[in-house]
Amino acid sequence: MAVTQAGITSSELTFSRWLFSFLLVTTLFFTWGFAYGLLDVLNAHFQQVFGISKLQSTLLQLAYFGAYLVFSPFAGIFMRRYGYKKGIHLGLSLYSLGAIFFWPSAKFERYGGFVGCTFVIGCGLSCLEVAANSYITVLGSPQYAAMRLNFSQGFQGVASFAGPLIASSYFFRGKNATTLDTVQWVYLAVAGLGLVLNILFFFCHLPEITEEALTKEIIEAGIVSAPEDIGPFYKQYRCIFGWVAQTSYVGAQVAVAAFVVNYLVDQGVGIDHSKASLMLSFCQLTFTGGRFVGVVILRWVDPALLLSIYGFMCTTFCLAVALAPRLGGVGCLYLLFFFESICYPCIFTLGTKNLGAHTKRGSGLIVMGVGGGAWFPPAQGGLADQSTTRHSYLVPFAGYVAMTIYAVGLVVDQSVKYGFTWRNRDERTLVVKQASNTVPTPLADEDYKKTEDEQKGDTSVDYKEV
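== MFS general substrate transporter ==
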């Protein structure tokens, strides 16, 4: 589908077409949620099957999230040229291709093969994330973009919960605890899911929302007066610092989940690997519940303010996980998963807001931040091998601190521009209101020059518009 055939904005869609597009793209979030949920369990499973260390097992995270670092910029460029739909086809194709090659990797018991296949899956999912996250964000008012993306990504959480639940039943029980037979069948089903979705998207019409149309929309809203006022991409500081925040946050989130099984087993409260995997699935369920709770809260609360609050809570509970012993640390772990819930969607929507012609490139950059998951887990794994799994949670703590600083900075910036409020506001309405409230202001003393009449006694003052 050529991009130029349907250069529209979401406001030009009928409700039925908008709802169909929204639900269709939302199905994609299940695909990478399921793959991500299985990834964290494979860490512990491969430690048992291949006899590798915690640090060596994080090669899976390095491959998976390193693919985001490498492929996301290309995905953004690809979609600028060919559109969202072809980007989705490319992502699903790579996703299925990587999953199908899990079969020979399991058959011949090659850990390196699993790492390579995981990289291919990561490339496909990075492409899907650029497409789906960006499309959901621009498919409606910017005011409720974070709410929409949280709702869609809630289904990613459902799939993340299903992955460890399947693993606890099949990966760690009986002879499956020391073999790879179940792994190959699970990933064969994953490949089949990707193929079915690819076929569905081929036969479905997905309206293309172009960057030209988005630029026109923000001009009509009064945010900028001309396309050139948007400025070059390297001056989109909200987006660039959003990439830093996303890198820090995703790195922290991935590191937290990657060692949950090891953390629970090492707490000394009688938890074995099978039970720990089941508990990880309930951690993901807590995370998913937090996403849907966040949808309701974001209907009224400003996304940047809510991200600041949740960021502070993540920082606090991650520190508690690292320091609190036994069941106290386990309880804080569940709370940490809850407060992680809204962070990724909020960073993405705040970082890509009002980019106009830079929307797809900016989306690629923010998704590239998922690459933070490639280097946080190895750092945590190294600390876990040298010290304890519990103390290794000081590594993700640093990531949450960086994310919180970004969120607080956005709140301060918005407060300076429009005044502080806790409510979710439509920025476009504020711009119009600000323009209509323009008041006359006296000329500055240095700009005011008295005329001869004023020097003779006429003390009237000239005014100019702000």
